[in-house]
Design brief:
- This protein has 10 helices and 11 strands.
- By secondary structure, the chain is of the alpha/beta class.
- The protein has 2 domains: 84 residues, 3-Layer(aba) Sandwich (Rossmann fold); 124 residues, Rossmann fold (3-Layer(aba) Sandwich), CATH 3.40.50.
- The strands form 3 sheets. The protein has a 6-stranded parallel sheet with strand order 1-11-8-7-5-6.
- α1 packs parallel to α10, α6 crosses α7 and α6 packs across α10.
- It is globular, with a radius of gyration of 19 Å.
Length: 279
């Protein structure tokens, strides 16, 4: 039977470690503060923001919330971010995406100071990641690395195949796997003979955005499968990009949906916040 990689448990371990670290930092007079900015009242965004606030409260990180109306202009949002950049009491800035269509997300991301970019989306953060400099790591890929390491899954020397080339998951995931000495292949919508490539993977990371797209035909015997997808099927059940029931009997380890990659993203966001005040 495949090892079930428990993201809930591993994320709790990380948050408990951070909680202890934050208590020590506070005893040294060092405070950690995250500013969370949400524009509009998108239901999914509200859930994510509330989960981040809860994680901050659990760990002991101060959370400042800025809930702006849908009608907020790009100039108004930019001005707020610039104000938070200058605020020495704020260590990290998170602008919840997606933003309303009249606001240029790229401009807002670039406005956040790279030294407070706890999402790891700023081009400077991305550049630091690729050349191996110290900086904030994209939270979902960083969480996946922790899932593998804390599940005692070796990365060095393994064939690692990523399905998806997004700036949020696919590309930074490749950089982090290379940092861990994995041999990395990125596949995408223009890849020819996808099955042939994915069946070479010792570690297969799926971020394709298609419900239950990956079946056992795409996976080699004994592979490790990490499912980044999140969907609601026709029966309103949560599921991923991987057909779990079909794939699970064939692999050595697999993440469930929900309860796999999802909880790790917030845990690593909290880690980035603490990183701002680590010596």
């Amino acid at each position: 039977m495949a090892q079930l990689i428990d993201g809930k448990q591993i994320s709790k371990e990380i948050k408990d470690e951070l909680k202890t670290e934050v208590q020590k930092l506070k005893s040294e007079g060092k405070n950690v503060c995250l500013a969370v900015v949400q524009v509009g009242d998108d239901p999914a965004s509200t859930v994510y923001v509330n989960n981040k606030k809860k994680a901050c409260a659990y760990i002991g990180i101060e959370s400042r919330s800025y809930e702006l109306p849908e009608s907020t202009s790009e100039e108004e949002l930019t001005a707020l971010v610039e104000e938070l950049n200058e605020d020495d009491g704020v260590n990290g800035i998170l602008v919840q995406l997606p933003l309303p269509s009249h606001i240029d997300e790229d401009r807002i991301i670039r406005t956040i100071s790279p030294d407070k970019d706890v999402d790891g989306f700023h081009p400077v953060s991305v550049g630091r990641l690729w050349i191996g400099e110290k900086g904030f790591l994209s939270c979902t890929p960083a969480g996946i690395i922790q899932l593998l390491k804390r599940s005692n899954i070796e990365i060095a020397g393994k064939n690692c195949v990523i399905i998806g080339r997004s700036n949020i998951v696919g590309k930074p995931m490749a950089a982090l796997l290379l940092r861990e000495n994995g041999t990395v292949t990125i596949t995408h919508s223009k890849t020819k003979d996808l099955q042939k490539i994915t069946k070479t993977a010792d570690i297969l990371i799926v971020a394709i955005g298609k419900e239950r797209f990956i079946t056992s035909d795409y996976v080699k015997e004994g592979a490790v499968v990490i499912d980044v997808g999140m969907h609601r099927d026709s029966e309103n059940h949560l599921c991923g990009d991987v057909d779990f029931r079909d794939v699970e009997p064939k692999v050595s380890a697999i993440t469930p949906v929900p309860g796999g990659v999802g909880p790790m993203t917030i845990a690593m966001l909290m880690n980035n916040c603490v990183e701002t005040v680590r010596c």
